[in-house]
Design goal:
The protein has a single domain, classed as Peptidoglycan recognition protein-like (Lysozyme-like, 3-Layer(aba) Sandwich). The chain has a five-stranded mixed β-sheet with strand order 3-2-4-1-5, covered by helices on one side. The chain is globular, with a radius of gyration of 13 Å. The protein contains two helices and five strands; from the N terminus they run ββββαβα. The two termini are 25 Å apart. This is N-acetylmuramoyl-L-alanine amidase domain-containing protein.
Length: 113
């Protein structure tokens, strides 16, 4: 197990990585798919299924997906001992501009138990 600095977040429209290239994949139905190995020594790569360059159609569904994502972030930050705030976007366009960061911020500041 490496020493991770934090989490890099992607959406599934990410041009730079394929589905096989993520450590964790959070499906729209809340299922988390875990890959066999960590692919990067410095960061855990988490992909959220969906194209967040478009406005969110079903906010209820996405809210549930964000809840699963927050639980994953908290679990990883606790397992690898980094601050759960060390969650960064892959880039300016990944995840897309409509990604609901506010849904994560609220919950990471007040972690669910
Ligand atoms: Zn990406």
């Amino acid at each position: 197990m490496g020493e991770f600095a934090g989490i890099v977040l992607h959406d599934s429209a990410c041009p730079a990585r394929t589905r096989a290239g993520f450590d964790f994949y959070v499906c729209k139905d809340g299922t988390v798919v875990t890959s066999q190995d960590f692919l990067d020594d410095d960061h855990v790569h988490v992909c959220v299924e969906g194209d967040f360059s478009e406005p969110i159609e079903n906010m209820g569904l996405v809210r549930e997906q964000m809840f699963v994502l927050v639980k994953l972030v908290l679990r990883l930050s606790s397992a690898f001992k980094f601050d759960p705030e060390k969650l960064m976007a892959h880039g300016d366009l990944c995840p897309g501009v409509e990604f609901p960061w506010h849904e994560l911020k609220i919950r990471i500041d007040r972690p669910p138990h």
